[in-house]
């Protein structure tokens, strides 16, 4: 039994390596889009779809703005770190709240663990003709990958196009390379890879040093705090 399990695990690892090799052009293209410099700071929350808004922790603080925007659902994907002091007030404003305990780590399976539940909550907002605000803390990685996944699947967009649209709306977006890869893998499962990226699409800016994802996020947070 142990031998059979070991063989199964080995075969899965080999299959994943082959998959990753095949998907490498898309990984690089998504990273190139996400890593590109942002032209300017964007106001948050930003609209991704008529029923889907994307922002940071601060985006969920202004209940009057949320009402003006027509927000009926708030999805916090950062767990307690993204929790608000206004939770008790949301029902008074007709806002439904859901918290998912996502972690902003390269090896955390954000998509497989949280995409389905997030998508269902967003769909609920759409079906009542409302709007869902998806946020984490900085509004870059955890909320970014789930918003991009929702846009990609709902509109049936190729993954690179979905990432470009989110980047254009948000500016600083999806710096977590593990999440970038998970998004491409989801696109592969959904048949939404699109054409193989050209060489020019996979040319990366100077590669960030190890740990620079966290440094970039910390620098961004210091600018907005």
Automatic annotation (TrEMBL):
Instruction: List, in alphabetical order, the GO biological process terms annotated in this UniProt record.
Output: negative regulation of MAPK cascade
- List the record's Gene Ontology CC terms alphabetically: cytoplasm
Alphabetized InterPro entries for the sequence: Atypical_DUSP_subfamA, Dual-sp_phosphatase_cat-dom, Prot-tyrosine_phosphatase-like, Tyr_Pase_AS, Tyr_Pase_cat, Tyr_Pase_dom, TYR_PHOSPHATASE_DUAL_dom
Specify the protein name. Answer: protein-serine/threonine phosphatase
Hydrolase listed as a keyword: yes
Which UniProt keywords are given for this protein, alphabetically ordered? Hydrolase, Protein phosphatase
Q: Where is this region: Disordered?
A: 190-225
The GO terms describing molecular function are:
MAP kinase phosphatase activity; protein serine/threonine phosphatase activity; protein tyrosine/serine/threonine phosphatase activity
Decide whether keyword Hydrolase is in the record. yes
What reaction does this catalyse?
O-phospho-L-seryl-[protein] + H2O = L-seryl-[protein] + phosphate; O-phospho-L-threonyl-[protein] + H2O = L-threonyl-[protein] + phosphate
Q: What class of enzyme is it?
A: hydrolase
- Residues forming the Tyrosine-protein phosphatase domain are 44-192
The record places domain Tyrosine specific protein phosphatases at 119-170
Species lineage, top-down? Eukaryota, Viridiplantae, Chlorophyta, Pyramimonadophyceae, Pyramimonadales
Describe the family membership recorded for this protein in Swiss-Prot or TrEMBL. Belongs to the protein-tyrosine phosphatase family. Non-receptor class dual specificity subfamily.
Name the Pfam families for this protein. Answer: DSPc
The EC number(s) attached to this protein equal 3.1.3.16
- Recorded source organism is Cymbomonas tetramitiformis
Enzyme active site? 136 (phosphocysteine intermediate)
